[in-house]
Amino acid sequence: MYVAKCTRNESFQQGRLSDYGNIKLSPAAGALNYGQGVFEGTKAFRREDGKILLFRPEQNAIRMQIGADRMCMEAPSIQQFVDAVKQTALGNKRWIPSPGKGSLYMRPLLLGTGPTLGVAPAPEYTFLVYASPVSTYFKVKSPLNLYVSDEFHRTTRGGAGGVKSITNYAPVMKALLSAKEQGFSDVVYLDSVHKKYLEEVSTSNIFLVKGNVISTPATIGTILEGITRKSVIDIARDLGSKVEERSIEVGKLMEAEEVFTTGTAMSIGSVGSVTYNCKRVKYKTGNDLVGQKLYKTLVGIQVGKVEDKYNWVVQID
Ligand SMILES: Cc1ncc(COP(=O)(O)O)c(C=O)c1O
Question: What is the pLDDT at residue 140?
Answer without folding.
Answer: 45
